[in-house]
C-alpha cells in the first residue's frame, strides 16, 4: 500500500463459496477489491446475485454501483465478475452488499427474494489483516443469513489484454450416458499463495475433445500485470443439479413436399424480411420451453434430406453439422443451424418420424429416476410416411395454419400456437411421475461440504 498517493485503484470481486473451509477459493481476485462470499446457512438459493451499493459524500443516498453475474443452484457461489473502485485514504467510502435469490429474468430487484445484507467501508476492507474482511450477513429479522468475505488488492497500472483459446484431448468420461460436458475455470494466484477464480469458459456439451471459444481477458485480471505469476487452470464436467430437468429436442422436416426453399410458396422459404412458417413455429414454442432447460443447449435434428457431400439420405442428422455434438446454444442457435442446413442439404424424402423419435427415446430410456424429462418437438408439413411406426408415439398434432392471424399479426399467431402446443405438457409430466411413483426430490441440505462440488473435476 502506498498511502502517499491520494487516489489508488482497487477492484472488487464476488466469491460465494465457503472460503474458510476451502483455501483454494479463500481469497478474492486481486483484480477486485471486493470478494464477497455469502455462506447462506438458512435458505435454499436457486440462483444467487450480489448487488454493490456506494454512498455519495455528504448524503446518505445509496446508489447501485454494479451487480455480479447470477450463479445457479449453490449456496456458495464463486463469482467471477469484479468491481473496480478508486480508493481515497482520506475519505470514508461506505459500501453495502445485498444478496438476492433470483426467481426470474427481471432486472427489478423487488421481484426477487432478499437473502441478506452487509455494510462496511472501503477503508475497513483495505485495513483488515491481509486486506480480507469477514462479516455476518443481516437484514432479516430473527434469521441467520450467512457470512460475507471481502478481499482487496491494489491494482497494477497494466492496461494490456491477452487473447487465449484452449482445447482438450481425451478427457475423462464422467457421464453415465454420453460423454463429458467440460468447461475450464481459471484462477490467479494471490500474494499469500492462495488462488482466486478469475474466468470461466462456456460448457462444451457431450465431448471428450472440447474446443472452447477464444476469450479476451485483461492481464491485470489474470495476474495483476505480473507475467511471472502462476495461473491455475482446472477442467470440470458440468452436471445438472438434483431438480427435475426438462430436455428439449427439436426435429425439422426437410422433405421435398415442403417446396423449394427458394420459392415463396415453400414452407421453408428463405424470406429476408420475415420468418418462414418453420421458423415461426420453432421460435414460438422454443422460447417458452427453453426457460425450463437450465443450460439452454438443445439437440437440433433434421430428417428427410440428402446430405453433402455424397447425397446420402438421412432421417436423423444434426442441424449444426456435428453428429457427435448436435447441441445448439439457445433457440437462436437452433434457428441459425436451421438456416445453415437449408443452404447445404437437398430436400428429399420420405417423411419418417421414427428415427428422431427413437433418437430421443434412447436418451430418455436411460433415466428412470424422474430426474429428467424429455420433450421432442417435431415440425413437419404433415405428410407422414411411417405413420404405423409413429402413431403410438404422437400425442397431438397442432396445425400451424389454423393459428395464422388474418390481420398479419405474427406475434399473436405464435403466441396462440405455443399455448396449444405446450398446453398438455404439465399434465403429461405429472401423470408420468405419478404412474411411476416418483415423488419430488427432498430439498437439498443447506450446506454443500467442501470437496463435494456440484461439478465433477476431470
Automatic annotation (TrEMBL):
The chain crosses the membrane at residues 35-54. It comes from the Eukaryota. Residues 439-458 are annotated as: Disordered. SUPFAM superfamilies: C2 domain (Calcium/lipid-binding domain, CaLB), vWA-like. The keyword Metal-binding does not apply. GO terms for molecular function: calcium-dependent phospholipid binding. The keyword Lipid biosynthesis does not apply. InterPro entries: C2_dom, C2_domain_sf, C2B_Copine, Copine, Copine_C, vWFA_dom_sf. Keywords: Membrane, Transmembrane, Transmembrane helix. Pfam families: C2, Copine. Residues 1-137, 144-269 form the C2 domain. Gene3D superfamilies: C2 domain (2.60.40.150). One of its GO terms (cellular component) is plasma membrane. Belongs to the copine family. This is Copine-8 isoform X2.
